[in-house]
Amino acid sequence: MQIYEQELTVTKDQLDLLNHVNNIEYVRWVQDIAAAHWTLKSTQEIRLKYFWVMMSHHIQYKGEALLGDTLLLKTFILHSKGAKSTRAVEIFNKTTGKLLTTSETVWCFMSSDTNKPARIPEDVANLFS
């Protein structure tokens, strides 16, 4: 299993009325790290032929993040079959090591030519194994 990581620092515009990170930011970060991992591992040629769409998303909140916290985001593929791939994202407070959020998202692999689901080719699947 290949793990891709990113760090970020919580900013004021990411806070809610309770002064901790708004739930929508976690969803944004899950989407953003998935896109960054795809862009890093795939070629321009592959990205012109295929893209991903989110089918379902489950997130569990285990702790809060506050202004100025440095977060460590980790993502990896749990499994892929046919046109679907399930990606996990874990978000940690980097200073304390505490796990703040876990998520599993099912993504559908799409053909740019047809705008329909496409079976994930072996060479693409191998990019993340």
Describe the protein's architecture and organization.
- This protein has 129 residues and is α+β, with helices and mostly antiparallel strands.
- The protein has helices at residues 23-41, 44-49, 122-125; strands spanning 4-9, 50-61, 70-81, 84-93, 99-111.
- It is elongated and about 45 Å long.
SSE blueprint:
Blueprint: E1 4-9, H1 23-41, H2 44-49, E2 50-61, E3 70-81, E4 84-93, E5 99-111, H3 122-125
Antiparallel strand pairs: 1-3, 2-5, 3-4, 4-5
Family: Belongs to the 4-hydroxybenzoyl-CoA thioesterase family.
GO molecular function: fatty acyl-CoA hydrolase activity
Keywords: Hydrolase
Quick synopsis:
The chain is α+β, with helices and mostly antiparallel strands and 129 residues long. Helices cover 22% and strands 41% of the residues.
User: What percentage of amino acids are in beta strands?
Assistant: 35-45%
Q: Tell me what the CATH architecture is.
A: Roll
Overall pLDDT score: 96
User: What portion of residues is helical?
Assistant: 10-25%
Structural class: alpha+beta
What general outline do the C-alpha atoms trace? Answer: elongated
Q: Find the count of extended strands (DSSP E, 2+ residues).
A: 5
**N-to-C span:** 5 Å
For the largest beta-sheet, the strand count, sense and barrel status come to: 5 strands, antiparallel
Helix and strand sequence: EHHEEEEH
CATH topology: Thiol Ester Dehydrase, Chain A
Radius of gyration: 16 Å
CATH class: Alpha Beta
Supply the number of helical segments.
3
Count of individual domains: 1
Identify the strand order in the major beta sheet.
1-3-4-5-2
